[in-house]
Description:
alpha+beta, 7 helices, 31% strand
Amino acid sequence: MRAHLGDQLVIESPATGATRRDGEIVGLHHEDGTPPYDVRWSDTDEVTLVFPGPDAHLRHLEHGQQPGTTQGASQPDTVEPGSVSAAPPPTEIPNPGDIGRRVAVERHRSGLSLGETARRARMSPDYLAYLEEQPADPSVGTLIRLADALGTTVAALRGGGIDLPPGQGQALLHPQLRDLSPQECRTLLSTHGVGRIAVPASDGRPAVIPVNYEVVDDAIVFRTAPGSVPAAAVGKEVAFEVDHVDEAMSQGWSVLAVGPARVVTEPDAVRELTRRAHTTPWAGGEREMWVSIRPASLTGRRITPADE
């Protein structure tokens, strides 16, 4: 029997095959993954040292690939005398790797280190690092602890609300709406992300378009294509908005920048913006036209519970 962090240890009744107890392996005592293991039991949430007997087997945390091996058909564990063959891994994992990517994004957004997040979620830092980097299928108990540590929900980590607009949770009983200082607004804008630009379209009607943006020397810059709707911002005063909603806590913030937009034409400046860009535009295609917005007005608001 050879385990990896995050595998599930299942102890079954030899007579009936019914599950008696299961838990997540959160600690290894041998580099080759042989027993004993530190197991966090799903029924008590307690961690104990376990030497698996003949009624125990493993369920691996991912389908079709063991950590450190090549992709392919799943192979049973190495069986030691007195043990049983490992149960096959789950037959399907939806969106492999998506949960780990969402965990990493929420962790960075919260400003938490990997070690601090693991401590709050009561799990091994090694397993959390593996979860963020590799396709995995963590247990419901693991997701609940991670969601609690990150101030989000299990549904959000699973991507359950990806096709729904934010803000469907219940409003706070005693909300507090406060204005943000310009410095707080700059901090929330950070260095890059996704925001929305409001421009008059070619037919004269207003349009609001999401764009990938960067903040460089206090200017908001984004890439687009000539003739596109965002390109209509050039030469006009426009509004640019960024926000974040915490569904779990029914609170959030928004920042609004208003100012003139211009196209960046200096070759050196264009090369420098391209070099410093954190990402290519999600919309794809040829989008090499850089537009800069120098905010003349920068305002924001935050909604929190009244006692904060």
